[in-house]
Amino acid sequence: MKNILTAPFIEEMKRTTANMYRLGWDERNGGNISYLIEESEAEPYLDLSRVIRTIPLGFDASPVSGKLFLVTGTGKYFKNVEHDPEGNLGLVRVSADGQSAELLWGFSDGGKFTSEFPAHLMSHIARLAVDPENRVVMHTHPTYTLAMNYIYELDEKKMTHTLWEMCTECIVVFPDGVGVLPWMLCGTNEIGEATAEKMKEFRVVIWGMHGVYGAGKTMDETFGLIETVEKAAQIYVLTAHLPRINTIQDDQLKTLAEAFGVNYRKDFLNL
User: Fold this and answer.
1) In angstroms, rounded to a whole number, what is the distance separating the alpha carbons of residues 198 and 228?
2) Active-site pick, 12, 102, 116, 227
3) Angle, CA of 17, 191 and 74, to the nearest 5°
4) How far is CA 9 from CA 42, 100, 142, in A?
5) How does pLDDT run across 125-184, given as a tens digit for each residue?
6) Engineering a disulfide at 62: which of 98, 134, 144, 160 sits with its beta carbon 3.0 to 4.6 angstroms away?
7) Quick check: is 116 catalytic?
């Protein structure tokens, strides 16, 4: 059996959490990531028949029963994942009845998955229904996106349109726009269900005055998606108080999206 600490999926999680902490997106124990792992990826490193313990989920996750997820732990700091992955991460399998998670590795100090893991699973279920290749759900608190929440209307069309105007790449990277939720209590099934509903349309969902949820096929894709939204929000916050002399026009956004062949939200443009 190979050493799981050398597994590519562990290395990816270590690099990503370290990078997100370095960028200031995940202060203290803020933020969480879940990563769908194929059995064939995990088998060289683990005896998948050995369950360390079972942790209740608090909702019915049967649409992803039997699937493996590498997930960050509750109360854990992203800055510590790189140096102690076994204490800060866990590899779990959703039970056959969908009611619990079977711990196969990690959470070595007796901990458990993030309190938002049920919300992650709800988003995985929603995204897998529209994109069977989706594997990552990432929750983080990017600084400028959060700052924008306080000075801009929490409206999906208006916010998407403004973010698209900030960088030429934006409509190409997130042509589906951004979903937006009002402030809601985190760590609950209610916010998980609301986020999953938005995930049927959007790969990025803004949690008002809190942060974002992002989803994607790979860790890099998901990180890059959120990174691009954050860059656009940064430009907006840095220029919002200044007179705007130039901007990307809607007909130019349309030309850009069509040149790159992306399926963009036409109803989010004013043409």
Assistant:
1) 19
2) 116
3) 40
4) 9, 23, 23
5) 999 999 999 999 999 999 999 999 999 999 999 999 999 999 999 999 999 999 999 999
6) 98
7) yes
